[in-house]
Amino acid sequence: MAPYWDKYFGNAGALYALGRQSFQAVETARKEIALGFNCQPDTIVFTSGGTEGDNLALIGVARALKAKGKHIISTQIEHHAVLHALDTLKAEGFEVTLLPVNSEGLVSLGEFKKALRKDTILVSVMYANNEMGAIQPIADIGRQILKWRRENNTLYPYFHTDACQAAGYLDLDVEKLHVDTMVINGSKIYGPKGVGAMYIRRGTPLVPMIYGGAQEKGKRAGTENVPGIVGLAKAYQSVQKHSTKESIRLIKLSEYFLNALNKTISKIQLNGPAIGMNRLPNNLNISFMDVEGEAMVLYLDEFGIMCSTGSACTSTSLEPSHVLRAMGMPYEYAHGSLRFTFGQTTTKSQLDYVVKHLPNIIALLREMSPVNTGIVKHASYKK
User: Fold this and answer.
1) Catalytic residue of the set 39, 164, 307, 313
2) Residues 162 and 310 grouped into a single domain
């Protein structure tokens, strides 16, 4: 990225030599992302991140198709970038069906089939959940959409997936997934923040949301973030190259960590699918009964241990996770949840450090808990 901050700081849309160098860097990055997605370079659009990509996919496609129908299908556990975009569309007269999930956070293909209607123009299901790691059956949903189109002789619905959490761990081949739009972002793959990539299948109708120039094939106006785009492509290449080996390593660490916590702390529960094929290898969401998640985060932070109670995008909210609530979890379970996410730098010794301090923190917080002082009572706990 470094040369494009100063030495090659040309506008990628300019005709002079410095601009052409920046343009070439952007196009090389586009080809690198397209290779990983198994698509043509002209179907890749660079954005400011996953949030913009989700908004462009949902609002852009829905507005382009409003004369054809106004029904959209999504799920109750989507990222707020999707849910809030859907709220905007509902205010414009679109009807949204949010599919429920089971206790593991997985969507039922049968429920999805039932939700399809003749006026369904768009489907949005996230590839892997950011809070509790459930991997959705995207390819199966995509095949069902293709079957629906054939049987009803229609081009609709179009299919979008938020793959930000999946990048680096799961196959993003758009032909295998049968998606029409898909987004990733830099910050989830050790790349720069504030940049993302979006796949838009040829022929997919889409109204731009940012106007002002002809950049990105007219899909997204604005001077290209050349250093960010270069960094995003290199980061994506790196994580995809090592994805299988890294996934195996992280699954082993997850199993080790969960077993250690179960041995040292009582009344805890893993949220989402069991560790394995239906769960991201780097995600553990665990509920600790009789403790508030926010208190645990602050106490752990004093020891240099960083985790969250849910999505980083809602870290200022004290409301329990909408994802865990959609899974049918009682308020107390959701409010006492922590999300531990592992990465390339996570080691067994670091997890041992967490296990050393977390039990004492839990014991202290439970001692101070209103539940244990008799002020309030919670629902019965099932391990």
Assistant:
1) 313
2) no
